[in-house]
Amino acid sequence: MFNNNIWSFGNSAVNAPYGWSQNKRTGRREKSTNSEPTAKSEAPCEALKNIDSGVVLCDMSDGEIIDLLAEGKIMHYELEKLLGIENSDRAVKLRRMHFAANTPISAEAIEQLPHEHYDFSQVTGVCCENVIGYMPIPVGVAGPLLLDGKTFMVPMATVEGALVASTTRGFKALARSKSGQGVTSILLSDGMTRGPAVQMPNAKRAGALKQWIEDPVNFAKIEKEFNGTSRFARLQEIKIGVAGRKVFLRFKCKTGDAMGMNMISKATDKALKLLLVEFKDMELVSLSGNYCTDKKPSAMNWLEGRGKSVVCDAVIPSDVVKKVLKTNVDKLVALNINKNLVGSAMSGSVGGFNAHASNMVTAVFLATGQDAAQNVESSNCMTLMEKTADGDLYMSVTMPSIEVGTIGGGTHLHAQKACLSMLGVSGTQEKNPGANAQQLARIVAATVMAGELSLMSALAEDTLVSDHMKHNRAKTPAPPTL
Amino acid sequence: MFNNNIWSFGNSAVNAPYGWSQNKRTGRREKSTNSEPTAKSEAPCEALKNIDSGVVLCDMSDGEIIDLLAEGKIMHYELEKLLGIENSDRAVKLRRMHFAANTPISAEAIEQLPHEHYDFSQVTGVCCENVIGYMPIPVGVAGPLLLDGKTFMVPMATVEGALVASTTRGFKALARSKSGQGVTSILLSDGMTRGPAVQMPNAKRAGALKQWIEDPVNFAKIEKEFNGTSRFARLQEIKIGVAGRKVFLRFKCKTGDAMGMNMISKATDKALKLLLVEFKDMELVSLSGNYCTDKKPSAMNWLEGRGKSVVCDAVIPSDVVKKVLKTNVDKLVALNINKNLVGSAMSGSVGGFNAHASNMVTAVFLATGQDAAQNVESSNCMTLMEKTADGDLYMSVTMPSIEVGTIGGGTHLHAQKACLSMLGVSGTQEKNPGANAQQLARIVAATVMAGELSLMSALAEDTLVSDHMKHNRAKTPAPPTL
Amino acid sequence: MFNNNIWSFGNSAVNAPYGWSQNKRTGRREKSTNSEPTAKSEAPCEALKNIDSGVVLCDMSDGEIIDLLAEGKIMHYELEKLLGIENSDRAVKLRRMHFAANTPISAEAIEQLPHEHYDFSQVTGVCCENVIGYMPIPVGVAGPLLLDGKTFMVPMATVEGALVASTTRGFKALARSKSGQGVTSILLSDGMTRGPAVQMPNAKRAGALKQWIEDPVNFAKIEKEFNGTSRFARLQEIKIGVAGRKVFLRFKCKTGDAMGMNMISKATDKALKLLLVEFKDMELVSLSGNYCTDKKPSAMNWLEGRGKSVVCDAVIPSDVVKKVLKTNVDKLVALNINKNLVGSAMSGSVGGFNAHASNMVTAVFLATGQDAAQNVESSNCMTLMEKTADGDLYMSVTMPSIEVGTIGGGTHLHAQKACLSMLGVSGTQEKNPGANAQQLARIVAATVMAGELSLMSALAEDTLVSDHMKHNRAKTPAPPTL
Amino acid sequence: MFNNNIWSFGNSAVNAPYGWSQNKRTGRREKSTNSEPTAKSEAPCEALKNIDSGVVLCDMSDGEIIDLLAEGKIMHYELEKLLGIENSDRAVKLRRMHFAANTPISAEAIEQLPHEHYDFSQVTGVCCENVIGYMPIPVGVAGPLLLDGKTFMVPMATVEGALVASTTRGFKALARSKSGQGVTSILLSDGMTRGPAVQMPNAKRAGALKQWIEDPVNFAKIEKEFNGTSRFARLQEIKIGVAGRKVFLRFKCKTGDAMGMNMISKATDKALKLLLVEFKDMELVSLSGNYCTDKKPSAMNWLEGRGKSVVCDAVIPSDVVKKVLKTNVDKLVALNINKNLVGSAMSGSVGGFNAHASNMVTAVFLATGQDAAQNVESSNCMTLMEKTADGDLYMSVTMPSIEVGTIGGGTHLHAQKACLSMLGVSGTQEKNPGANAQQLARIVAATVMAGELSLMSALAEDTLVSDHMKHNRAKTPAPPTL
Asked: How many Å separate Cα C464 from the centre of its chain?
């Protein structure tokens, strides 16, 4: 079971609310045996000790409970606990009433936020707190995507008009690739990372720590502790950065079909405890020292990868470029150099050598229960285009840090799970753990590729350009063609 | 009205689907007078010409329509057009049936994705295509936030457990700041950017273009064209980058309460047309040359800002740090240096000098109809902490590129609009256009600040650390205190 | 005259040694009227107070002085002061003897370092301290360079074999450019920068400072103070960065023919004093807040420029590429994309989109008395190559931050001045101050261009490649040609 | 012996001039057996075939030779070859005469550039071409440096006034560190890198190449080829980056006491040849694909290291800070955070978290025959300062990519070798190859540390600050102390 001090992670957390914690693999809630020290007692009666003893909240009317909330005798964030998780829907309803009555939130506003027809007990203690409803994001389907010879229909949750249509156009062109298999994908690496910071008395000791870890005998000791925390966590490497007396340790491990931040946090915690025993003069600075790097731009993820590192490519025949994408190979190749390489270089970008990878990443992430805040690094992408000897378009996208899972996080929620199922990657395959998450990463990359191809085609054929061409091209003395 | 070649933008688009385009300011759909060249005719009868003439799709039974779809006589993406926008809900239902019957998507999977109780006519032609339902994201409320003396309850849409609770804890501490006004925010800059790339025959001409634009007389000409495209677009500056014969022009302008990408694309297009007249040897490379920079990491946005540049700060009394955050000022200050400055520097980050800004940005963005793909740069943030002479905690977050709007994009959808209303920033104020979007940006930054404060406190007090302290501290010879 | 607290700058300094300071424009030493507080008195007699009064060091024999040094009665760093600047050569000789006798430096080693035939009085109090001789760096001449229709022979000081020969080959090809004028250069910007950091009590006041400075009325006040410090310093702009309560101010100004760091430091100091009067709650953090950015890699200089921003380009006929460079246009263009754009992007480079700009920059800097430590940013360069419609090679180098001067620094030394004279850019032209330094910057960029062209040609034709081609090309199925 | 196509490297070269190549380890020239294809015949008689047969150039008078040069019958770059290497001094003299007579270089200018008293035969065919003299750079000595308990006097070649004096002040403070051993240094890594780019037909094959290399059996094959090229080259690792179908291979190896670029280029070339045999569809793009990364800013070197990775630290007692550095610990610590961490972060720096490391690096590099163009990455440095529990100053510098050698390059020249000898690190120790270069790297880092400490102290005590303090401090309400 998950213990509390790990609960504190996933780069976001604080106190385990309500005293429940979640088994991140199954998505099931479990009562915490190791009670949260700062949390109030979970017993409804005790929580209601200011009120007449013997009263059980469930038996009260809505109005009575709202009164208690207004008087501060109970707190709105305790509602799920006090009413019982099976009454989460009622807790949501009561919170809405309370907020409308006693906070700056107007009744009119809250009325427009849907909450019915949704099972909030799925959410309680796992995905969100202080819940008042849900935000519906339209889901469209882009497809069919032909990827490594298989066909997928890709759900995308977005409010960005034309994104699904544009991606579909890209898929259409990619499905006609020369290989007959559509997009080809390769997986270069698969490993989540966590980069704690520790501190030694001085640089010499920092160096000693580094040397100790790099000794295979010691690495094996760490590995044993680390891997012992989960049947999926498999330590791959520890990248060590030293800054004066501070040491940054980037643990990298396989995490099965989970995105893996919680799994690796727990495992890293265990490994650090071993180090603290071996190095009495070592101090932990932070379980995350921004050396991971999670949810922030960094060269680290661009150079080293994080999560799944995927490359997709395809050769698109020139006539498909013409008919489906309404442009030509030369224009695309030139535009890609000028915009995605030169333009991004001019902007001082590290990892942003693409047109709009983040759009596709975010839409698929939202549809499939991923952590959308991780699109910061998951959208790292280099789009490349070349003209083949036959005059066709060779295109690739290189994405070193796609962070996805098919279990854990938001993937257990009904609707999110439904979209994973549409792609055939829900949950985990007992025989081949990790395969579903890897397949999802390939789909994300292929979807990015389609979106890139379509937008680049639109940009290459801006009517402004074509109008200009008609009028001015002839007069211009031999401009460079690339 | 929006014309088609602008439709192609917002960094995502391609063809205006269905022949409708959207008035981005009002969120209302308008029939495009300038029909999309690649789109098929919009008349249902013509679209049905393969079928018996006289038949109107609306009159058919679901089964009959599914048959037409299966036979390829009509395409699923035409359903809204063929049935009429007022029948969007039926179109969604039919598409689900069609996908379940005729694609790899299983009926079981699609069944779990909700679609009822939602008005899809709001979405059609504006926010999403090939729609099959919606993705419900739980919405929790963090608060109360005391910001510049005013109180807000902040809706956050997220599946990340503990995020809302943690942010609330941060708000609690910030509300007790020394000023009595909670968090103080300042707005340093407000301007959306678009960075097209153009090409001259050689560097000399590229230099001439730069010089021409920098001449105030010419700048005024450009400004006139630019501002003429909208009553909100107000050109502020054009940053010019030259790379050989290529010229990158970063237009920056106020965009009222809209996030502004569409507005500025249209205005930039107009400005470029003027330049094409003045410079006959200029070629447009791309309306977006990645010099904007949209949805990609870049030093550009970090150094120059994009959207709203906001700084928030507060002095949190040491006893509040102790009681609410369960840690102390020295630990927080040291951790912030080691993790958010040194750690991020060690990872080669540009703009990622924070713990998890992206979490809060994404959750508020999703709740309020923002473009979540823009969190890549909107999450740029430097968190700083210092100890004051009185021993209290001085804390600030600096966020140079928060891209938000309260009109346009997904902000017109009922639920999203509801969350904007909860914050009192829905739509635009006639007397003070731009004020709502600016207020929203301040709220985003303050929410980030709360999340940063709470997570940093949790990290500073990792039980691992405290256990270690008890056992080892005494033996360690005078370690540096910072 | 230069006062002492400015002396402390140029990003290197500390105490003005010996009590002399230098008029940086003329390179002449001047006795400091504002004596260095930490320096000992300059009077030889007082310095010798431990010795018999009445003794003057000049009258002593070498052996006697060495004895005094060995006994610690005088310090070796005082020798120039005690003997008089006109006896600098003797001071150098004595220091060598002293070091050989009394430090780990062996007599054999020091013997091999030349010191004769050099006028060290030029150096004393200006360029170097504790002098024991000079380091001879071989100077070769690359050329002729045809630049904007004029011919130059470019001196390069280097120990890197083949660099001069390779650059000469590049010049040979460039001289045959289609324009008939060789390389064309343009100057996009000319301004040195200094970026102090100041601190306000909070963000609100930081914002107020920013707003105050941006008010044209106030800017004019600052400008007046700033420009009043020198007849060359002309304030162009102040870029303001805010991080919480800290404010970074990047002053940019013209500096005539000086590289300008000292000039701008002095002027910035004056401007800051004005601000300190206006803002009583402002604290100076540092006259240099690394926002300049001097001698460090940064996106700042890449995006904003520093010193001279120069672009050079040329069209090299395809037959010249063949005959002089022994390669062809297609290979060069492809190599440039793969190495200088993709390769540098893969390495996470900001500003390093070139093959070896630093080689040429450093060699010309060393030959012309520039500050070689500034090659860190002066070498920022993007090399671009394209094939023209006629099949020729269009090439450009874009260098935004070349920091050079023709007065001040090491430019007054005989040999360094000689090399400046060879280029016709020694000193300043009264009628056109700044023109010499700008011309030098253009020459640096053109020399970089030649070096880039030649090395890229060598790389494109690696025999490894050609051998491989012969054996494998035919068998490979239609590879992309780019 | 070195063959020609390797000669072409060191990131600078082209054709081996004169037909000689250099044994980089010994610095001795050797006649190339593999004659340069593009070079003219080396035989003086043949070169003089336009002239009367039988004439030998050596027998001619200066005037006669100048005439031949003026008439173009012989070329100035052939002089050393035609006259014989032993007459290099005469060749230099003749070239000066020729340039003064026949090029834009004036006689007056060339006259001021020294050339006498120098043995140019050392330079010919090794270090420089088209030689006309040498550039004398003043050499000062900073010291004594107490490093790991040993004392060094550090020669620095510079024209930057106060640099040597300032560094000496830093050394003075560091010598009084608490450990009694002065500065402590640790070496984290030692390995030069070369990052060629190759190209496969598609991403799948790129992935196959990566996988093949990562197989230990195959790695051993590569290692054998690689190591076989030199008795020092010892392959450590190959970091593999994939971008679409392009593969970047960063070979890292020990290079004994050589800086190692030539050694590793030769070894990499051999390894690539093996790969070309194994992968018939592989194409070499470039022996250097900018993935090395040499002489360019990059996150690669900052994160991965290049050459020697060194950390230095020391605890400086607070009274030493006061007496020697004239400031206090709190000011230094605060300044370091604000300038070297926050300021550099605000400038978008990767690797430039220091005040002026490049100054010290460049001066020591120039004094010891290093490649000064490599200071771009060798100056990567993070300076950290903390206050210890005892109130003293803990300081460190972290420099991951110091590229130095004590053999090869310019280290064999008399004066440069002399400076290496002063440090006790000239040449190589047979028993411990690599130790000298490592020691030099430690000295470079310690010298940087001293320069950092001294300049930071000067900045912390700017009189501007102190004046301001006197007048304003009292009135300011409790500002943050850090």
From this structure: 37
Residue reference for tokens 């912030």? B336
> Is B2 touching C (CB cutoff 8 A)?
no
A249 min Cα distance to partner chain D (Å): 13
Chains with 3 or more CB pairs closer than 8 angstroms to C? A, B, D
The pTM of the full predicted model, rounded to 2 decimals, is 0.91
For chain B, list residues with pLDDT below 70: 1-55, 463-482
B389 and D481 within 8 Å at the Cβ level: the answer is yes
Q: What is the DSSP string of D104-168?
A: S--HHHHHTS--SS--GGGTBTTTBSSEEEEEEEEEEEEEEEEETTEEEEEEEE---TTHHHHHH
Cα C118 to Cα C94, D33, D135, distances in angstroms: 15, 41, 11
Report yes or no: B374 and B294 within 8 Å, Cβ to Cβ: yes
Which chains are adjacent to chain D, needing at least 3 Cβ pairs under 8 Å? A, B, C
Q: Is C128 helix (H, G, I), strand (E, B) or coil?
A: strand
Say how far apart CA C420 and CA C412 lie, in whole Å: 10
Q: Give me the interface pTM, i.e. the ipTM.
A: 0.90
Does residue D80 register a pLDDT over 80? Answer: yes
Which residues, including other chains, have CB under 8 Å from residue C431's CB and lie 6 or more apart?
A: none
List, by residue number, the catalytic residues of D: 160, 295, 371, 468
CA angle A396, A398, A399 (to 5 degrees): 145
Residues of B marked as catalytic? 160, 295, 371, 468
Q: Dump pLDDT digits (tens) for C3-27.
A: 223 233 333 333 334 434 444 444 4
Residue with tokens 């490599």: D374
> Nearest CA to D73 among D96, D92, D55?
D55
Q: What are phi and psi of C186, to 5 degrees?
A: -130, 145
pLDDT, one tens digit per residue, over A208-243 is 999 999 999 999 999 999 999 999 999 999 999 999
Closest among A205, A333, A207, A190 to A253, alpha carbons compared:
A190
Which 3 state secondary structure label does DSSP give A388? strand
Between residues 289 and 328 of chain C, which touch chain A (CB distance below 8 Å)?
A: 299, 302-303
**CB–CB contact A348 C302 (8 Å):** yes
Tokens of B12: 């995502």
Q: Of the listed A371, A377, A403, A452, which one is catalytic?
A: A371
**Beta strands at D234-243 and D352-353: parallel, antiparallel or unpaired:** unpaired
At B401, give phi and psi (nearest 5°): -145, 60
C52 pLDDT band (50/70/90 cuts)? low
Share of chain C above pLDDT 90, in %: 83
Q: What letter would DSSP give residue A342?
A: I
How far is Cα of residue B68 from the mean position of the Cα atoms in its chain? 39
Beta bridge partners of B388: D480
pLDDT of residue A462: 84
> pLDDT value at position D52?
53
DSSP-derived 3-state class of residue C303 = helix
Residue B183, beta-bridge partner list: B147
**In this structure, which amino acid lies at residue A391?**
G
Q: Which one-letter amino acid corresponds to residue D264?
A: I
Q: Is A476 in CB contact (< 8 Å) with chain C?
A: no
Say how far residue B278 (Cα) sits from the centre of its chain. 35
B-to-D residue pairs, Cβ atoms closer than 8 angstroms: 70
Write the pLDDT tens digit of every residue in C369-412: 999 999 999 999 999 999 999 999 999 999 999 999 999 999 99
